[in-house]
Amino acid sequence: MKKLKSFRILFFAVLTAALIFMTGCGGEEQTADPGIPDGTYVATFTTDNPMFHVNDAYNDKGILTVENGKMTIHVSLQSKKIVNLFPGTAEDARKEGAELLEPTTDTVTYPDGYTDEVYGFDVPVPSLDEEFDLALLGTKGKWYDHKVIVSDPVEGSDIVSAAGEHTGEQAAEAETPDISDGEHTAEVTLDGGTGRASVESPAVIRKNGDECIAVITWSSPYYDYMIVDGQRYDPVNTEGNSVFEIPVPYFDKPVDVIADTTAMSEPHEIEYTLTFDSASVK
Q1: Pick the CATH number of 39-170 from 1.20.144, 2.50.20, 2.60.40, 3.40.50
Q2: Which residue from 82, 156, 218, 260 could staple onto 242, CB 3.0 to 4.6 Å apart?
Q3: CB 60 within 8 A of CB 113
C-alpha cells in the first residue's frame, strides 16, 4: 500500500514538473527562440500570389520587430483593397471570435516622388524562412488563403535604403512610355487564373496626356466586370467576348487585376496580372 502511495506521489511530481517545463514558471506560455536577438530588422516578406505583396516602393521588404523572443513584421501593401488579415486559414478567419489583424494607414513615396496612402499590417511571424498561413479579406467581403515567408533579416530600420535599390532604370519601368497622344497598340501578357483564359494581343492603347487606357478583349463572353486598383470597370460591349477599357498605370511590370466570371455555377472573382510591353508600342 505504501509503495502504491509513493508511486502516486512520484507520478504527480513528474507530471507537475513536466507542466512547469512546458508552460514556464507562473504558467505563462514559453516563446519559441526566433534565432535572432531582440531588435529591429529589415526583412523580406514574400507570398504565393502576385496579387498579394508588399508595395512596389519597398521591394518585398518590411520592418521586423523581435521583442522578448516574439516576432512581428510590419508590411505596407499596394493599396487599400485588402481590409483585414488573419494569421491562419480563411476557414478559421470566418469563425466567430477570430481575432483579425486591423490595418494601419501608411504613406509610401515612390521613386518619382509620388506619394500614396495604403494599408499596412503588423503580422505575427511564427518562424523565419518557413512558410505559414496568412488569410486576407478583400473589399468584396471574401476571404482568400495565402502562404507567406519572412526571411533574410538585416539589422536596421531604414526600409527605403534596404528595399530599393530603385535605380533610375527601375523607376523608368514604372512610368508610361514616351508616346504621343492618340491610339496605339502594345503587346500584353496575361498571367494567373486557371490558364484557360486569354486576352487579345496586341491590345489597343489610347494615350491622352498622362493617362493610358487599354482595350482588353477576353477570350470569353462571361466576364461581367474587372477591378483595377480597387476601381470596378464594366464591359463596354453587349455582344461577343467581353471587352473592357481599363487604365494602364505602368508598362513592363505586372498590373494586378481581378476579373469576375459568370461561366461557373456562381460568379467567381479571379486574380490575374496584365503586363504591357513598352518596346512593342506602335
Answers
A1: 2.60.40
A2: 218
A3: no
